[in-house]
Amino acid sequence: MDSVLARMDKAANNFQGMTSNIQMISHTAIIKESTEESGTIALRGTKTKTVNALINFVKPDTKSIAFRNKKVQIYLPKINTVQEYDMGKFDSLLTQGLLIGFATPAKEIRKNYQIKLLGEESVAGQACTKLELTPTQQTIQQHLSRLELWISNTTGLPVQEKLHQQSGDYTQIIYSDMKLVPGLTDQQVQLKLPADVKKEYPQK
To answer: Which of 97, 132, 160, 202 could be stapled to 150 by a disulfide with Cβ–Cβ 3.0 to 4.6 Å?
Structure first.
C-alpha cells in the first residue's frame, strides 16, 4: 500500500493538467438501470485543489459539463441552453472524484479515508493496483460511501474510478488515451458558449 500511495503522491505533486477519453456509467439503484456516456475530459490542477474541468460528451447525446469556481455549467447544444448550478452538496463528491487520483497528496488521502489494498488487476491492458477508500470525514460520508480506484502501476494515475453513494447509486469512470498536459490553459477547461445561448438557473 505504501508503494502505491508513494506513486500517487509523486504523480499528484507533478500534476498540472491532463486530457483523456472518458467513459462514464451512472447506475441508479432504485430502478436498477444504468446509463452510459462517452467523450473527452480536460482537467486542470489548481493550487487551491478545486475542480477546474471540462467534459465534452458525444454519445449518446452531445453535452458539455464545466466545473469551475464551485459552479457547474451544463450546456445542451440541441436546445442552445446552459444550466448553472452551485456545487453545494455535490462539492465533496466532485472534488474527491475528479481530483483524488490526480492532484491529492497521499497525506490528504490518509487523513480523509480508510484505505484497503484489493490487489492487482488489468484494466484496458494496463497493470493496475486496486484500492478501496472509505471516507472518515462526515462531510464526505454524506455523499460518498466508498471509492474504488484502479491506479496504474506505471504512472500512478487512475485508469478507472467507481464512486459509490449512500443511496446505492454509483458512477464509474474509465479513462483511456490519457495525456499529461503541463501547459493546459484556463481557457481549455471553459465552455465556449454562443452569444445567444439561453441561461437557466434550476436551483432558483
So the answer is: 160
pTM of the model: 0.89
Three-state secondary-structure class, residue 168: coil
For residues 26 and 169, what is the distance between their CA atoms, to the nearest angstrom? 8
Give the ranges where 15-168 is alpha helix by DSSP (H).
91-99, 106-112, 138-141
Q: What is the dihedral of CA 58, 196, 194, 71, to 10 degrees?
A: -80
Look at the alpha carbons of 54, 59, 63, 65 in this order and tell me if their dihedral is positive or negative.
negative
Q: Which amino acid is at 33?
A: E
pLDDT of residue 18: 93
Tell me how far CA of residue 35 lies from CA of 59, 60, 83, 169, in angstroms. Answer: 11, 9, 21, 12
Contact 53, 67 (CB under 8 A): yes
Cα(48)–Cα(61) distance, integer angstroms = 33
Residues near 123 by beta carbon (within 8 Å), at least 6 away in sequence = 150, 159, 160, 174
In sequence order, the 6+-apart residues with CB closer than 8 A to the CB of 78 are: 61, 62
What lies within 8 Å, CB to CB, of 2 at 6+ separation is none
Alpha-helix runs per DSSP H in the chain: 2-14, 91-99, 106-112, 138-141
Tell me how long the chain is: 204
